[in-house]
């Protein structure tokens, strides 16, 4: 308890603008900052859970109080007031205690991050009891590439569901947008880019992952013993004079916000790339296709370089006209919110990110826009065969129906549907790879000796 009181006091004395140490950074957090962000997030989650339980308790207790009040001409009002005061106090204590404990722990971690304090310094701040407990614990295993990937995957999944909240609270756990190649983030400086890419090509293929995923999702189904399962980007670099890059972004933010930020990233990339960028192909899976499309639709006269460079947008299973599950979640929240007893449950269902909410209706069918010289390639799939019309219209690939993935009012998009493939199959599939090769063949010649 002494630790809790001490840390809570320190938090209250801290200037509010210093609460989140990652507010000015645009780099990936280190292990300590991830721990700090996780603790802050857990504290917020406990507070939210306590609030939902409190609301559910109140919804139940209000039923008999209202009935008794009507029968006794509100004679039960004093009893109801006492009951409500007690429950408010109890749930408030649980909520604040949970938030306080984890916020306090996050503060301790933050001080260690900022001051690079040794465990002994922190131990002294906490009354000299910490090291005695730590001495009995096994030494932690140093992180490696495999554990880093696992942590990154978990973080991306959490950002997909709560990413807007993490961004709004400047939580160090939030995913920051960046481009990656060979598992490493791209440097921002032109000289560093030139050193990193001595064989830089003038045509870029940029892959955008979907909801709750990251750049590693393009390696799904990869088997080192089966060359055909290598990621699309690697195989395209073998066959064409291109450089493959991968975007990581916070899928919990709304699509327009991610598109505007991605456009800034692309403009900067084109300016600093070691050679003149003459072509860009955007390949987006699911939500990534919507973000790619939104970037093209957001181009203005100030984006002359991007207007010239972006040739094609490939959307793999993207819900242009919305996703059934997202619509179901929205309908469930609306239905539960109609009744007092189920309102708290509806609020629990409503705790989903702006990114997920955007998938309810998508961006709508493709529309003709003046000044756009970009070819859209819409790829859809279904888990059934071509004759299973009811599967196509109700289930589709498991998350997106072909009608939504191929929604186009322009009549100009190149569209293709695959049968007996589910949503995630589109990330690494030989048939889809052939489509990508056809897209690049419209602008580029294959390398000598490649088919």
UniProtKB/TrEMBL annotation:
Top-level taxon in the UniProt lineage: Bacteria
Record field: compositional bias (Basic and acidic residues): 7-20
Gene3D superfamilies (alphabetical): alpha/beta hydrolase
Domain GPI inositol-deacylase PGAP1-like alpha/beta: 265-326
InterPro entries found in the cross-reference section: AB_hydrolase_fold, PGAP1-ab_dom-like
Residue ranges, annotated region (Disordered): 1-33
Pfam families found in the cross-reference section: PGAP1
Gene Ontology molecular function: any one: hydrolase activity, acting on ester bonds
PANTHER family: SLL1969 PROTEIN
Protein name: GPI inositol-deacylase PGAP1-like alpha/beta domain-containing protein
Organism: Limnobacter thiooxidans
